Amino acid sequence: MNVNRQRKTKDPCPSCALHKERCICDAIPRLDLKTKITLIVHAKELKRTTNTGSLALKSLVNSEMKIRGLEKSVLDLTSLLTQDYQTYLFYPSVDAVELNHELISKSKLPVQLLVPDGNWRQASKVHYRHEELKNIPRVMISTPNLSEYYLRVENTKHGMATLQAIALALGIIEGKEIEDKLLFLYNRKLQETLKGRGLTL
């Protein structure tokens, strides 16, 4: 069901972006993992109350954000290319391979996932505009999104919220318990957002 509506939340919580009466900050876990999540987010995405990537960062101690799309500023991601991690760009391009246990087992290094965050068009630009990432392997999860409700319209059957995608990826890398904690947070975000729109799951 399309529940995407262009209206601003009044008096939002500065942390979870929901109305203060529907705040879900009590559901945000603090997970200190070996895997590093680096969110590459478009500046316009940070203004959207349906954004879930920021919730992922608040949950994951070993994470950081890089902001692209700022005026008069070119984002250079070279600093992310470190020998401390096996780095993957988490984006379903035509050359992306499945993120699974077999792939993860090929390296003894901890994983760094570079996760584009924004609408489909914004996220796709990370894939082909950043030359410094051209040799970074692309990975994807082919599990279709069968949810009836969405925070916003998805362009493909594999489309899902950033927090959902990160949860599934960390389920593969770090284990089901981590996946479940992040999906619980996502579902709380979805439920409270729907309530604000007069809908329920």
Written overview of the protein:
The chain has 201 residues and is α/β, with parallel strands linked by helices. The chain has one domain (29-196): 3-Layer(aba) Sandwich (Alpha/beta knot), CATH 3.40.1280. It contains 5 helices and 6 strands. Strands 2-1-5-3-6-4 form a 6-stranded parallel beta sheet. Strand 1 (36-42), helix 1 (53-59) and strand 2 form a beta-alpha-beta unit. The longest helix is centred in the last third of the chain and has 21 residues, at 176-196. The radius of gyration is 16 Å and the shape is globular. The model is unreliable at 1-6 (pLDDT under 50).
Topology:
Layout: E1 36-42, H1 53-59, E2 63-68, E3 86-90, E4 97-98, H2 101-104, E5 111-117, H3 120-129, E6 138-140, H4 162-173, H5 176-196
Parallel strand pairs: 1-2, 1-5, 3-5, 3-6, 4-6
Strand segment count? 6
Question: Which range does the strand content fall in?
Answer: 5-15%
Largest sheet: 6 strands, parallel
| Distinct helical segment count | 5
Cα(first) to Cα(last) distance is 10 Å
Q: Which fold name corresponds to the CATH topology?
A: Alpha/beta knot
Low-confidence stretches: 1-6
Task: Considering the chains and any ligands shown, give keywords for the structure.
about 200 residues; alpha/beta; Alpha/beta knot; six-stranded parallel beta sheet; 5 helices; globular
